[in-house]
Design goal:
mainly alpha, 7 helices, Arc Repressor Mutant, subunit A
């Protein structure tokens, strides 16, 4: 980690200043998220799955043995995935996920993580936690990390869960 972080404009080799602090803040969040995603991708994709597939597996592990309907999985994803069916198809072909018709409502297909999916998550867990630690080492104190989580939560609350606000 560099002792003094470069400015965002320097990092992006931007010759013109940002038009506002708001613009700089948004670009900073997007750039940071992209770099974090890239670091996690290197760790996860080494095992043959994407970050989105990893997220699906984590969601299904949390759902327990009853699993979740496909659309419920989609609604819980960190990043929007328009092709949730294709995403789950790939996991099913790899035998990491199984799909079964719901007993009470035959129209509903429930997705469940398989033992192979659980084993893959177990294999990835230590490396992902290590990556999380590296990504947050710039904020060594827990209260700094909690403050960041709270600030980002305030931003998400303004944006809402379904869509970005209309421009003012």
């Amino acid at each position: 980690m560099p002792s003094t972080p470069r400015s965002l404009a320097e990092e992006l080799q931007q010759s013109r200043p940002f038009s506002s602090v708001s613009e700089e803040a948004v670009v900073a969040v997007l750039r940071t998220a992209a770099l974090m995603r890239r670091a996690l991708s290197r760790r996860i994709e080494s095992r043959g799955i994407s970050v989105a597939q990893y997220n699906v597996l984590r969601i299904l592990r949390g759902a327990g043995p009853e699993g979740l309907p496909t659309l419920a999985v989609r609604d819980r994803l960190i990043e929007e995935a328009p092709g949730i069916t294709r995403l789950i198809d790939k996991l099913e072909r790899s035998r990491l996920v199984a799909r079964l018709r719901d007993r009470e409502d035959r129209r509903t297909v429930r997705c469940r993580i398989t033992p192979a999916g659980l084993a893959l998550l177990d294999e990835l867990e230590a490396g992902v936690r290590e990556t999380h630690g590296l990504l947050t080492e710039a904020l060594p104190r827990a209260e700094e990390r909690r403050a960041l989580v709270a600030l980002l939560g305030r931003v998400r609350a303004v944006l809402g869960e379904d869509e970005a606000p209309e421009p003012r």
